[in-house]
Design a protein that fits this description.
Structural class of chain A: alpha+beta
Largest sheet of chain A: 5 strands, mixed
Mean pLDDT of chain B: 98
Strand content of chain A: 25-35%
Number of helices of chain A: 2
Radius of gyration of chain A: 12 Å
Oligomer: heterotetramer
Distance between the termini of chain A: 37 Å
Number of strands of chain B: 9
Low-confidence stretches of chain A: none
Strand order of the largest sheet of chain A: 2-1-5-3-4
Chain lengths: 81, 137, 137, 81
């Protein structure tokens, strides 16, 4: 299935755009999405392991299945405050 | 009350929102743009958020703090966009009957905000370079 | 900066005194007049000081806090005389490069102020009785 | 020697005045002063043991000798803040 992933901060900068379309297996998980992002944006390599992912507005674990049409975002380590 | 805003934060207005005759204590925290980081000089900061999720996480922080401490009122306001030196990026204000809970809850909110709320800071250094800040990387 | 005053405290003015581009954090504490103490209702509070000694002890607190934490600016203002419900009796504001020191030093100043500074509070209860507050007696 | 002691809060209230003149032995200590205050203002009895004393603007221990003409104050447990 096709996932439209929102990107922020370093992820947006390295990808050169605020969203990216990625292909993951049907019933794929966050791990699959992370692999697809890493391949699509090689420049993320050093930081990719510390990027978390959100489905809707909640953090999701690596083994969480991604529902079809889910709103998914890549969350690099945060630095607000 | 939680808020994300592009405008300068009126911290006194935030504090006024939490003051109450039920409270004996108010603790307020202001995050401000510091010029020096070690030997490096900052020119400005740029804050970006995943706004829907950041607003949701801030509301979760307020709710969780209210479940842990006897909070009368709490307010968390984070500014986004460009910040000049000395400007305020975040204000947390909490009122409680007694002072220990005010200090502890205000600090817990700030500490946890910096761990989980999807907001990012970009340093614009005085030498013209720019750098996203991603702790631990 | 330390001050004893008979006038209402403008806490925003106190916070402005400590803000600085050298600081990334400001912690401010406000003590306010709480209406209820258990089941008893307060009508107003009256604060009295031994002024010369209280000013000296407040200055000692500021100096000691500066020796313990990397404080950019600190301000302690205590109001004396009659206070109505919700009014501010004390403001402590501290600015530091990072937030941990701001929270810790602000709290230490408040905790120690309540231990050693010769200022006393008289409760004027809603039932018309009055009572000096002397902790531990 | 004669000591003019400043009184505050409950001490002032019980004594009915803001200062009190007390007689202590020459070279007397804060302990002597406390005893003299207790005798002069019996109404202080429950709180007298928790009253501290200041010489000038510093707290003084029980065994501190009181200098002649010292500025001395009775400091009941404080409750500022």
């Amino acid at each position: 299935m096709r996932i439209r992933l929102r990107l922020f901060a370093i992820a947006k900068e390295r990808a050169g755009r605020p969203t990216i379309e990625l292909e993951v297996p049907d019933h794929g998980t966050i791990s699959d999405l992370k692999r697809a992002l890493s391949e699509a944006v090689p420049g993320l390599d050093p930081v990719i392991d510390r990027i978390r992912f959100a489905i809707g507005t909640d953090y999701a674990d690596d083994d969480t299945p991604i529902p079809p049409n889910a709103d998914v975002a890549a969350i690099p380590p945060v630095s607000g405050g | 009350m939680v808020e994300l805003t592009e405008s300068p934060i009126d911290y006194a207005a935030v504090v006024e929102r939490v003051r109450s005759p039920l409270a004996g204590a108010v603790c307020a925290f202001l995050g401000t743009v510091r010029e020096m980081t070690g030997e490096r000089r900052t020119s400005s900061l740029e804050y970006e958020a995943y706004p829907e999720m950041a607003a949701g996480k801030l509301a979760e922080l307020e709710a969780e703090a209210r479940s842990r401490w006897p909070i009368i009122e709490a307010a968390i306001v984070h500014r986004l966009g460009k910040h000049d030196l000395g400007e305020i990026s975040v204000v947390v204000a909490v009122s409680t009957p007694h002072r220990a809970a005010a200090f502890e809850s205000c600090r817990w909110i700030m500490d946890t905000l910096k761990e989980i709320v999807p907001i990012w800071k970009k340093e614009v250094w005085a030498d013209g370079t720019e750098e996203w800040v991603h702790p631990g990387t």
